[in-house]
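Troubleshooting: if your tokenizer reports a length mismatch, compare against these two reference records.
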Amino acid sequence: MSVIRVALVGLGATGQAIGSSMSRRMDCRIVGAADPRPELIGTDVGHVLGVGPLGVAVVGDTADLPDADVAIVATTSHVAQVADIAVPLLERSVNVVSICEELAYPWYSHPDVAARLDFAAKSNNVSVLGTGANPGMIMDTLPLLLSSLTQNVNSVVIRRQTDMSRYSAILSKFGLGLTPEEFAAATADGAVIGHVGFEQAIAALAGGLGWQLDKIIVDPVRPAFVTDSRRVGTHLALEPGTIAAVRHAARGMRGGRHMIDLEIVFGFFEDRDEIRPGDSCRIEGDEQTVEINAATGFESFLSTIAVAANAATAVVDARPGLLSMADLPVVAIASKGGRRRESTAR
């Protein structure tokens, strides 16, 4: 079996965690890493990942990356910026997987960027995919798969309460750690925007179900509660009197009905809080209602790492073009390289 050559683009907290995961896989080998921070350039990426030397130095520009089978991009939530990184890699016949939320299903929200990425990928016989825990799996691909248990779906309702204490840079867009006054000002200035990816998750789920929605409504993000004690995460501490959780919701509408209803509470949670981590999904069908509840919730950070790592190896063997998670065979993702090992051995 040929080993998949992996390049890492972006070595923030999430990028490092994905890289650490990939370094432990027997079917993968990290051959390159890029990050513009001066303090990382020239450093052995293994030291950055905390896994020991790998003999691969971090470069400051993706143009300096060596040839690879797949690049994993963990830089930004915005697809236009990721496209500027992805297209030159695709033109070098490198498959691209990114945890950019807007890339998970960009045909609805960013059709021009989607067309640009699709053309670049197909022209060079490679694939490009946006994925992660959400969007990518929990609010789109997973309910789409569960919907096969009923013959006609009438509505989908998903509720998430997810712990964010492992994250770093992306926390700024949620406004965690701000006072209510600071939160209001930052929201008005556009610095706090909440979750990026609602449109993509709803459009992906509707597309898979064959629904033509009239519109997608994304509510403003708002505080859920303020902490009265200090809460410490991996990269950020929340002081008393600051916002410890925010609530964000969106709906897919058709004929005045809520066909898809999504809500997430993002926060740093403690056992004494009324709101605790957890996930629920209810699919209302004609003959039955399918409902699952994850009492402690899907751990968002770890789930994002796992989905990205598993999808990265699956993409290498996927059809060319811009893909969504629904385009990949379930077994190619779930087998964690095992399916590829079997097919290569035959």
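Reference record two:
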Amino acid sequence: MKVVYPGSFDPVTNGHMDIILRAAKIFDEVVVCILRNNSKRYLFDVNERIELLEELLYDYDNVKVVNYSGLLIDFVEENNIDAIIRGIRAISDYETELQYAQMNKFYSKTKVETMFMVAQPEMSYLSSSIVKEIASFGRDVSSLVPENVAKKIKDKFK
């Protein structure tokens, strides 16, 4: 089974990595898809995000990192994806993700399924936005993101 885990990953957090690695144990192929949202201001450009993720996932043969600038459902159909993986941290995530899942299913020719993976309790508060906010005030984020990401974030806020 081939699944996609979409997101902006700006920056990739330990929570993202947890979902990716758990999915890699379950599914034949996991495509980590960096989607571009024109309404967001990014800390890292798309090439930097790809590089950071590839550094972290280099020895996982069943995980690949790509980027896409259109609708997720178009990516799903163009790449013969069987299901969409989404991480859920709280009820508010579920409500938002449920809307996206229903819309993706509505527009999908194949009626693609969305599968929710629940965040580990110790990571349920973690988001890229929180990491960037903390880092912008000069605080250490090395316990929230992988080591290579923490170094790059520190460089960005120097």
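Descriptive notes for reference record two:
- Residues 91-107 form the longest helix (17 residues).
- The longest strand covers residues 29-35.
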